[in-house]
Specification:
- The structure is a single chain.
- The chain is built from eight helices and 16 strands.
- The chain is an alpha+beta fold.
- Strands 3-6-8-7-12-13-11-10-9 form a nine-stranded antiparallel sheet, sandwiched between helices. Strands 1-2-16 form a three-stranded mixed sheet, with no helix packed on it.
- Helix 2 packs across helix 5 and helix 5 crosses helix 7.
- The longest helix is centred in the C-terminal third of the chain and has 21 residues.
- It is globular.
């Protein structure tokens, strides 16, 4: 099969990070849509919302007070999914009913005191503040002796389950490495053992050489639609240098991480001229004190929107029972993202009005 055939006929692609297949059906993009249409949720336009738990000076749901913060603000989640204390329990019945406790710490990080300022609309100084805060949270949690993994993630938009529109992310630190990072860890180690090289360094070189799926890049990072993407406009942000965590980035690289995240998220908002929903997060090396030379820092963006701001992808049917599947090829998705441009559509409107 040559590359042209790949763009027009059904096939499956291999995801080397999770070592699983995804079915690609490019011929299906023309099918009519008579299914569910989502209501468009307007992005917040007020700087301060007296009813928002995360705006400075307001009371949170658990009764605590959010202080009058002026930059970023991190706090312990008032409704944590994991707890740091407690006995270590194991439960087992015939090897089939197996359970154990998992200690953990859950934090919330507000990106800005402003209720309306999302990642694509933060300036470079504000973004650098967010990256410094992520790095600090990662380092502090990594130093807790029993913490073996730190997951930083952002749910943006109601469609992705964000409970509040105020720009924020969550950070969960566990005593064990969770499923997906553990599978990536195995793949990265196996590749290194076999090829004496890094899976993601080699993959990035290939993508930068072929330029079929690269959306944008700077001196330290590249954003691309992975060859094995499942979500319609899924992207992978890769550091160009082989580093395992945010902590290991140099000063200039932290600024360039902010640059690439802003550019990716502006492109997302521009796609359908709306506040584009997504779940994103960083994958970093486990924090168990081992060297983890095979690890390569990256971020995944998983956005659900398919063909407009009102039609989204659900994982149903074949995907729940057999394998992930997509209609829009990663190559076509990357062209759409390239064409979306890097001037935020709201700023385009402002500059038009000023003319
Ligand atoms: P999400 O938008 O991704 O749901 O993140 C918001 C988190 O903020 C959520 O985990 C916490 C919720 O438990 N939260 C507080 O800790 N205190 C509050 O007063 C409201 C929300
Ligand atoms: Zn708010």
């Amino acid at each position: 099969m040559n590359f042209e055939e790949l763009l027009s006929s059904p096939h499956k692609r291999f995801n080397p990070l999770l070592r699983e297949w995804v079915l690609v059906s490019p011929q299906r993009t023309q099918r009519p849509w008579q299914g569910k249409v989502e209501k468009l949720v307007a992005a917040p336009s007020v700087l301060y919302d007296p009813d928002c738990y995360l705006c400075p000076g307001n009371k949170r749901a658990g009764g605590k007070q959010t202080p009058q913060y002026t930059e970023t603000y991190a706090f312990d989640n008032d409704f944590p999914a994991l707890l740091p204390e407690g006995e270590s329990l194991h439960y087992e019945g015939n090897g089939l009913l197996v359970a154990q406790t998992d200690r953990g710490l859950c934090r919330v990080l507000c990106f800005s005191p402003r209720h309306d300022l999302t990642v694509p609309r933060l300036n470079s100084r504000e973004l650098r503040g967010v990256i410094d805060a992520w790095t600090e949270q990662f380092s502090t949690l990594a130093q807790v002796p029993w913490v073996r993994h730190v997951q930083i993630f952002e749910n943006r938009g109601e469609l992705m389950g964000a409970s509040n529109p105020h720009p924020h992310c969550q950070i969960w630190a566990n005593a064990t490495v969770p499923n997906l990072p553990a599978r990536e860890d195995e793949s990265l180690r196996a590749y290194r053992a076999e090829k004496h090289s890094c899976l993601l360094c080699d993959y990035l070189q290939l993508e930068l050489h072929r330029l079929e799926r690269v959306v944008c890049q700077n001196d330290a990072f590249a954003a691309l639609v992975p060859f094995w993407a499942v979500w319609p406009f899924e992207t992978l942000v890769l550091s160009k240098r082989h580093v395992g965590s945010l902590e290991l980035l140099k000063e200039g690289e932290r600024d360039l991480l902010g640059d690439i995240l802003r550019r990716v998220t502006i492109r997302y908002d521009n796609l359908f001229e709306s506040a584009f929903p997504y779940s994103m997060g960083f994958h970093q090396q486990p924090t168990d004190g081992e060297p983890h030379e095979a690890w390569h820092l990256h971020a995944h963006y998983f956005p659900p929107l398919l063909r407009s701001a009102t039609v989204r992808k659900f994982m149903v049917g074949y995907e729940l029972l057999a394998s992930p599947q997509r209609d829009l090829t990663p190559e076509a998705a990357s062209i759409r993202l390239i064409e979306a441009g890097e001037t935020h559509y709201l700023d385009r409107a402002v500059s038009r009005n000023q003319q």
